[in-house]
User: Which sequence fits this backbone?
């Protein structure tokens, strides 16, 4: 039986460009990538995600040099997909997946975070498609995601971890569990984002305890309950909700992260726990102090 002290070492904490207000490969409102790398290392995080493809250098040799000399390693890449739309989107999806997966593998990472497409525009709120999938679309989503998991594993040796996300079709407890029940555990794992799951009404500890074998990766995040209540009541899209500060600095919001980390440790598996505090756009001097305080807080939680 693994001791608590040993188990705590299985949680590998990192951060991501998202915590520095980075949502796009290029944007004048974002900090330069060099500053992100400098500050994430200064804040005490040894692991990072690639963020939006093209924000960090895409040449593996250059990126390895830039991260290596700062003592940083890459935990995962990220892709966006709309696999419920059918086989006709596969080729376009695979083109972007292949680029990200190639760089992710070259950086020695083992995970590819897969975020479903938004049913409404995350900035304007324009409705792009129906909020609820049909049974046929659910079946297509499950089969296409399994195919993605199989191909990514066979071609790149990576594991996909699907990220439930606000304003997507994989969001609430009902939809997350439906997705997990419909997919092969050998091919599809979950990136549990504690903030997004709380945003959509879910209980992260309960999900870990019920579907622990499917939890392959963690994003640590909290939501401000008061702002969330207003966002839900007024049906505010995710982007403007972030602008209102719905994702907040821990430990000010929900869910409490110490019980989440304790539940994750009880799984007795290696897990990344990557801090993501959505705050696009934000002043360039805002992220570093938050990142330092968050790292201290997570250490107090045993992470």
Assistant:
């Amino acid at each position: 039986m693994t001791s608590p002290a040993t188990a705590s070492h299985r949680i590998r904490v990192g951060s991501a460009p998202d915590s520095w207000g980075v949502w796009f490969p290029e944007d004048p409102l974002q900090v330069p990538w060099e500053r992100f790398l400098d500050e994430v290392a200064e804040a005490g995080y040894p692991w990072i995600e690639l963020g939006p493809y093209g924000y960090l250098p895409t040449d593996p040799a250059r990126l390895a040099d830039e991260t290596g000399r700062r003592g940083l390693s890459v935990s995962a890449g990220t892709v966006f997909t709309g696999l419920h739309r059918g086989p006709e989107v596969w080729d376009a999806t695979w083109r972007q997946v292949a680029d990200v997966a190639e760089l992710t593998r070259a950086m020695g990472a083992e995970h590819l975070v897969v975020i479903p497409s938004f049913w409404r525009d995350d900035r304007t709120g324009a409705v792009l498609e129906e909020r609820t999938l049909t049974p046929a679309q659910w079946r297509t989503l499950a089969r296409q995601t399994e195919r993605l998991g199989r191909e990514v594993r066979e071609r790149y040796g990576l594991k996909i971890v699907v990220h439930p996300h606000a304003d997507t079709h994989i969001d609430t407890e009902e939809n997350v569990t439906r997705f997990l029940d419909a997919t092969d555990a050998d091919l599809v794992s979950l990136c549990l984002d504690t903030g997004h799951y709380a945003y959509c009404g879910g209980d992260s500890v309960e999900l870990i305890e019920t579907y622990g074998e499917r939890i392959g990766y963690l994003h640590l995040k909290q939501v401000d309950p008061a702002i969330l209540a207003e966002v839900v009541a007024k049906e505010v899209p995710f982007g403007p909700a972030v602008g209102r500060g719905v994702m907040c600095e821990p430990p000010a919001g929900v869910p409490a992260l110490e019980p989440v980390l304790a539940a994750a440790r009880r799984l007795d598996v290696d897990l990344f726990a990557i801090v993501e505090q959505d705050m696009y756009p934000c002043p360039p001097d805002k992220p570093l102090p938050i990142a330092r305080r968050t790292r201290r807080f997570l250490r107090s939680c045993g992470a």
In short: Residues 11 and 271 are 5 Å apart (CA to CA). Residues 1-8 have pLDDT under 50 and may be disordered.
